[in-house]
Amino acid sequence: MIDTHCHLNFDSYDDDRDAVIARAAAAGVDRIILPAVDITTSREVLALCDRYPGLYAAVGIHPNDTADFTESTLDEIATLVHHPRVVAIGEIGLDYYWNKSPKAQQFAAFEAQLALAARVGLPVIIHNRDASDDVIRILETWASTLPEPLKTRPGVLHSFSGSMAIAERALAAGFYLGFTGPITYKKADETRAIAARVPPDRLLVETDGPFLTPTPYRGKRNEPAYILYIVDRLAALHLMKAEEMARITTENAERLFNFPQ
To answer: 15 — phi, psi (to 5°)?
Structure first.
């Protein structure tokens, strides 16, 4: 299995990172993608990739960290993408919930990083919070201009929580949808209904650790070994065995991120 989104560089893992990675391997998680949120974390995730086999990175600037985004910021990200374990630009997007960066600045950073992804041929990991209409509009325009083969693997809408209409538009534009711990929550019927309608070959599984811990560990720190609970729930929604869903989502991640050998 592949955990396609986990912040293993965060300090909540500092005391037992080796053990977390060992538990992931014991659970059958053999690859983990670490998305960055700014320049510092972009460097951190690359350092971890150098230290541990099976870790891969996405570099980029999270919308909540775009207030100081400049051309030089983009230039630095463009330099970091050449690391051999970088498989995506991310996480990038728009966030209207926290309002930590002006919308105009978020837009500029988002579109600049999308342009970079197209230029270097990497998919994108998309963060969206309370900004679905703007996110999907920008992504549809961007995806329509992509060359092959990136046009068939433009990226993933991370921890999907939008409407079915947004899901359909994202799928039509070629995107994958990632699902996290909330799909296991008691009141997440709408998210489960959407996940059940997503074609299996467009599903990805993510922990977003240390956040969004699935039931039965909700309230505790999340970690990649818990991806099993997300796979199990998706399998039930699609009326298949967990082993089959694990195989499908692994193949999906391999197709999207084109992991280096």
So the answer is: -80, -20
CATH tag, 2-257 = 3.20.20.140
- Give the domain ranges of the chain: 2-257
- Tens of pLDDT along 215-261? 999 999 999 999 999 999 999 999 999 999 999 999 999 999 999 97
Reported pTM: 0.97
Tokens read off for 92: 């990038």
- Residue 11 gets which letter from DSSP? G
Beta sheet of 2-3, edge-to-edge order:
2-3, 31-35, 55-59, 86-95, 124-129, 155-157, 176-179, 203-205
**Cα separations in angstroms, 51 against 6, 45, 112, 195:** 16, 10, 30, 35
Cα separation, 93 vs 136, in Å, equals 10
Share of the chain above pLDDT 90, in %: 99
Residue 18: count of CB within 10 angstroms of its CB: 11
